[in-house]
Specification:
Layout lengths: L6 E5 L8 E6 L3 E10 L3 E7 L2 E6 L3 E4 H5 L17 E2 L1 E6 L3 E6 L4 E5 L2 E17 L2 H9 L4 E3 H21 L12 H16 L4 E12 L2 H16 L2 H13 L4 H35 L38
Parallel strand pairs: 1-3
Antiparallel strand pairs: 2-8, 2-12, 3-6, 3-7, 4-5, 4-8, 9-11, 10-11, 11-13
Length: 324
Amino acid sequence: MAWFGQFANVVEWEEYRDDVLFWKWTNREIKKGSRLVLKPGQDAIFLYNGKVEGIFADDGEYDIESDIVPFLSTLKGFKFGFNSGMRAEVLFTNTKEINVKWGTKNPINIPAPGLPGGMPIKSFGTFDCKIDDHNILIEKIAGIKHQYHVDDLKDRVIALLDQLLMKWISREGKDMFNLQANSFDIAKGIREDLDMEMRKIGIAITNFNISSFSYPEEIQRMQQKAAGQSMVGDVDRYTQISMADSLGKESSASSVAGSVIGMQMGMAMGQKMGEQAQQSSSNKQEEPSNNDSSSDTVTPKFCPNCGTKNDGSKFCPNCGHKLK
């Protein structure tokens, strides 16, 4: 009676995992009275001699002899014997759309003007995939594999990403220093090419996103320096922004930072005020004087009232008439 251990009472996806695209139930015989258990998000594909016999997609429990066998292409006339079962393979497929994170392993040298070796960049993002064609999947992969993980598919995708990123970044003269602004168009082109390649193994790429581009540290420092110079170049704008930032800081650490900013602001403002004062002084020296001493009133030598000679006094010594 030991041979009954080869038979199965239940056909189901054992140890189901979301990161597995398919799992093959194999190397056992199905005996009379066995049941198929199909969970949500799964399809069960019955195979016989490597050919698809039937595909079952509705989740639930089925009696294999009465609910499954009559719908199988070749085995619909199969009758379970008392001492023998039906040998068949059942491929369980994951029908869910799976989200996968990706990232370039090494920098990709993208051709760029003025850089003989190209611009070395890294990129990161996500893509969504799902099984699209059971027949192609079985022919290309499931026929020789017991199961297929998302990581297996991810390795295929990353192997193609270097050339696809290079193709779509270089296309139409994308701004090498502002790739994030063009990430939507780049990702759209990559998804179309990637989907066309992955459908060759029965899997569709339904979405592809680029989260970020990573530049070399030298390029990042240059960008930060350029941004800082563009702001400091406008002292008024820099002062206003710094004052607004300092007003919103309350912690002790922020107070220290605010003090440093305040000192920098004071130095900048003092320098600007000094320049303005120097400029104002230069303008005054160039302008003609409005209070020329030659225009002052001269004291008369003789009193116009009585004719008495004056010795420089403001009033006449004879009649007291005001002379100045």
